[in-house]
Amino acid sequence: MFKKILVANRGEIALRVIRAAKELGIATVAIYSQADEDSLHVRFADEAVCIGPPSSKQSYLNIPAIISAAEITGVEAIHPGYGFLAENATFADICEEHLFKFIGPNSESMRMMGDKAIARKKAVQAGVIVVPGTDVITSPEEAAEKAKEIGYPIIIKAVAGGGGKGMRIVYDKAILEENIDIARREAESAFGNDSLYLEKYIEKPVHVEVQVLGDNYGNVIHLGERDCSIQYRHQKLIEESPSPNVDEKLRSKLGKNAIKIAKAIKYTNAGTVEFILDEKKRCYFMEMNTRIQVEHPVTEMVTGIDLVKEQIRLAYGEKLGISQNDICIKGHAVECRITAQDMDNNLSPNSGVITSLNIPGGPGIRVDTHIYTGYKIPSYYDALMAKLIGYGQTREEAILHLLRALDEFIIEGVKTTISLHKKILSEENFRKGNIHTHYLSF
After folding, report:
1. 291 noted as active-site residue
2. Choice among 291, 337, 366, 395 that is catalytic
3. Confidence label for 442 from pLDDT (cuts 50, 70 and 90)
4. Structural domain of residue 185, as residue ranges?
């Protein structure tokens, strides 16, 4: 097993990786920006290296600085967490060139799945149904012709997209060209790639994703699905496993399709194959995320499998120690993303010092967080402060645990989304599982 790894991330995911490594007997190196000097991942790592100023570009996206930190501390592997460089194939290549094992999939798989148009082709080749759509569009005229063939409404998507960037919904030809221009500019700004493609827009889709694990010997398993339909501006707010919209027959189909895609690209390590379901529960492949997901704890809760430890073991070259028959989904888990956002100002990001904090506990509750009283929420990064996970034998029990825990979760000094989560979890339609990606319309 590795003796020392570097964690190329910050916040709660960096702390999560450090904890998993410690339990495996692995020493850890944290990197941090000047804004994160007092972060808990710095405190609890065995070593820590400051790699630059607060801005992500000069620190957590600064590949030379990260590689230098790895070299001077003598690590064997680098865990990218999620976000930042986690799905950057060039970073994975550079790690390997400098003889650091990248704890994630190989760069070829990342490149194929990072290009949404190629990912669609691979899914089709694997025999998995995709949403009706196009290859990369080269002109507004071609887009108009293809949109007519597909049928409005359509959605414009960035080939290298994510997080809702470079996406536009179009209901008729009159506004198609205008939205293509906007999407191109967004895509270029966010990803340095302005390539776009079109898909049929499904009005009220259910968003589900299947967790997969693959080793270097061709073995791939799935760990069931997560429902990620509660979103705002394409950002997930609440996730759960299993999905209230998926029965055993559909779960089996989704799992088999996810494995087909993973095997088709010889995928290794942890990844997530994402699907959307239409109102008739027909499932379509959407994309694959080649990293650990923010919402991975709900899968851990219902399967009993530590996904981060599995990532490290698989990167070291171990075979999967579990088979598909070993996977058993028990109970139900729901996760609320607690973020520093202002409910009274269109959920705009909010920074400041936490003046008072009470983290909930009790039966059925897990909290993954890096915050503490006196911690300053920096304005440079994602607004995520904590992940509150409720587990129960039933979905209703998990929700009740969460509602009780949300009442106990006190964060003062910054504005949070705690009240929003209380409202959603208390609504009748949510409790009945009547959810889709446009559930939140404010």
Report:
1. yes
2. 291
3. low
4. 132-200
